[in-house]
Amino acid sequence: MRKTLLSAILLLWAAMLYSQDFQIEAGSGAGFYKMENLKALNTYVMKDLGFNTKLTDDFPAWVYFKGALLFGTENYMAGFALSHHSTGSRISAQDYSGSYHFDNIINAWMPGILIKVPLGNIGKVELEGQLEAGFIYSKLMSTEYLELFDTVYLDNTYNFKAMNLYVEPILKISYPVKSFKISCQISYMSQFGKEGFKLDQQGNPQVMNPGTNTVLKPEWSGLRMNFSILYPLDKLFLPVMKEKKGTN
Amino acid sequence: MQLSPVPASFSRKIILLSSIFILFLGLASCEYKLHDLYQNPTVEGTGEPAVNIVDLNLDQDTVYMYADRNVTFRFTSSNQEIRTIRFLVDDEVKDTVNSNQGEFLLVINDFYSGIHDLSIQVLTGSGTGSIAEQLGAEGYYFENHWVLVVIHNASGECTHTAENGYLRLNFPAMQGHDIKEYVIYRRDGNSVTHDIGHVWTNHFIDTCYVGEGGDYSVHAILNSGQDLFWGYWMLDPELPRLSFSATETNQYFMYWSRSKYYNGIASIKAYASKTNYGNYDLLHTSYSPNDSIAFLNGYKFGDEFTSKIELVPKAYSFTYVPDYDEYYSTYDEVMAGYRFANYIYVPNLIKTAENNQILFSDEQTGLMKYSLTDLTLRQSTLYDHSGCNVYTFSDLCVSPFGKFFTAHVCDFAQVYTASTSDITNYHVGSMSFLTGQYSPDIPVSDNHIGLVNSVIGGVYLYNFDTQSVVAEYAVNPTVTSGVCISSNADYVIIYEMGIYKLMHYSNHQFMQLQTYDPDNNNFFEFSSVANDQFSYWDGQFLSIIRATDQAVLSKIDISGEKFVAVDYKNHEALTGKGQHLLVRSTDTGELLHDVPINDINIYNYYHCSLSDHKILSNKGIIYFL
């Protein structure tokens, strides 16, 4: 898969040399994440604790950001994308006698490549299809803390890392406003790869999830809804070129 | 100076770069934000509860533990839930029960015998519902202590005694339990354990024990029916000591000491066997503890045999058949005769000394001086010195009148010499400067002059008092050796070139007086009563000769008999012939005593001597003439 992606990037780079249109896209949206494996860990931890706690966060949907650089023709565009996703969980309790929390914050950087094709127009509204694929670099920070009557009994923090792959088909609706193009898109991201979390050190084995007796791993698959703005780069640089011509 | 307007292309680039910067700033700061900690609801506590004991089978402040013990418990609390009950022994948590009731097993092997502290802690909640309460870190705590006395068993205090002729087994009473009874067990030769009695006191009388040794044990039976091992005894055999002796009329008898457990004995059977561990002949059966002697008829001086007594116990109430009567028997390997030496084989010759005493040695006691007058050991000594691995006195020689003696000690390396009046006041030294590697016996005179044979030939007269060579005879040194020396050291018998020579020593000069050329069997010995007399056996005749003029004072024909010894004082000679020891007059040859024997080794192989009308065998026995 990695070799395929690298080959595609090289092809894209070659195609870029013959491109006529360049666009930059920035947007944000809501990401829903599966994270069943990590949720099972939380269930296990809650059962294992000898006192009442509450799961106040359980890997909910969270804002994600995404940027892309596209190039190509009116009928075909390709490009690079980079997005950042984050979510987390917390099991906690606090009262006069002490406090306990078991926090998991998981972040992921997802660099990828994309292909976009127009599907049709309804007036000024453009319907586009987009396919995106890339890497998922996940980082999990897990913290457990217990304090009773000003005595800290637990204060452990672990950082884990994992790398996997994704594919994301996207349906996009765009509407031009002056020199910008405003887009709404909906997609589903599927994660591939079975690599589980490892301690943030080389050579460490994968961490086991006692709740499932499987490898502890991220699961970023889920629905994405996004709002973005596109701006054609040729419009950004064209006046400069015209100004230069005018001075001549 | 006039400022020029900023170009539109420059503004667009700034917008583009700012957008990219803001985009990545947004990407980097969009990490998930966790909610605040959940606030656990708590309530105000309801105060200290009252904990009550509903059931606890530790009803005494002191708990005796003889076996694994199950502690059952149930507590109640007035207004707080009992969360945990902990059992601690010597402040170490042994068990924790997260309930208000249950049971706890005290395992006796977890504790050494002695006194321990047992405590039970009851922990209740605080009633607040706090995290600390839920984790058991907040609540109310109740504790009670017991003295735990752990006794694995009382074997260390189990003793036994003899009481009124019976075995009495004593054991300490078990404390802290309702004892129903104690059961006494005994293991038989087949390792089968038998119940031999039930008692309510802490002792037991075994009326059938005779001292044969045995394994006993006692169990305590509680009212609850629990059977607890309480102690054991491993009794070593304490059978009567069997001895053998003879009267001065040469009647042989065996006798035994009185048993401590005489009332447990039904009878004692006395046996003898002429073959070791063969068939035994029953000699006598004793039914009374006062009857402890059995005479042996038909046994002759020097006969070797095995004597045995077998104790027949009174029968047990159960079927108890010992597999081997060895448990009830004691043996003694003996030789018929009056025993004067502990060791059955006396390796050295028995030598007569002055004052009607004899010297002999064995490997256990060393050198001994024994009185033939009162038949008692007068003195003994061991030469136990560093550097000496062998303590035996070898090559014992006593002067003719019995005043001095010589012997080898330290495995022939040293010569030990002393007066027979005090055998411990000795002088020890090496004679190798005269004898070389050769260690011949050294005949000694009554003025403490030794007749020392040299390894290179020649004979020395050596004064042990001055530790100097008095004289040397070396006419034909390689074929000359000294045989014996007279009481005053003025006469010696020297063997030279196949001929025995009577030599007179005076003024540092040796003078040959007579020569003797006997058969292979011959014997020379200077008299113990007259300085200038010696006996001479040539294989046929035994003569008493006066050295001064070589006059034969007496001569008896003992041809066909083996010469054994002469008692100069009583003018008697001991010979052996067939199954007879014969005592003849050295004056007339008259047969004075005919001692029948079965074993001719008594004179053929073992050595005998004759003194004070007694035949002494170096097997350690005496025959009274």
Notable traits:
heterodimer; A: 248 residues; eight-stranded antiparallel barrel; 12 strands; 18% helix; elongated; disordered C terminus; B: 625 residues; mainly beta; five-stranded mixed sheet; four-stranded antiparallel sheet; 5% helix; 48% strand
Characterise the protein shown here.
- The complex is a heterodimer of chains A (248) and B (625).
- Chain A has 248 residues and is an alpha+beta fold.
- Chain A has helices spanning 2-17, 36-48, 233-247, and strands spanning 21-31, 54-58, 62-72, 77-95, 98-122, 125-148, 151-177, 180-192, 198-199, 208-209, 214-215, 222-232.
- In chain A, the strands form two sheets. Chain A has an eight-stranded antiparallel barrel with strand order 1-3-4-5-6-7-8-12. A two-stranded antiparallel ribbon of chain A has the order 10-11.
- In chain B, the strands form 13 sheets. A five-stranded mixed beta sheet of chain B has the order 2-8-7-4-5. Chain B has a four-stranded antiparallel beta sheet with strand order 12-11-14-15, with no helix packed on it.
- Residues 1-6 of chain B have low confidence and may be disordered.
- Chain A binds chain B through residues 24, 26, 28, 50-54, 56-57, 62-65, 67, 82-84, 86-88, 90, 92-101, 103, 105-107, 148-149, 231, 233, 236-237, 239-240, 243, and chain B through 7-9, 12-13, 16, 19-20, 23-24, 26-28, 30-32, 34-42, 128-138.
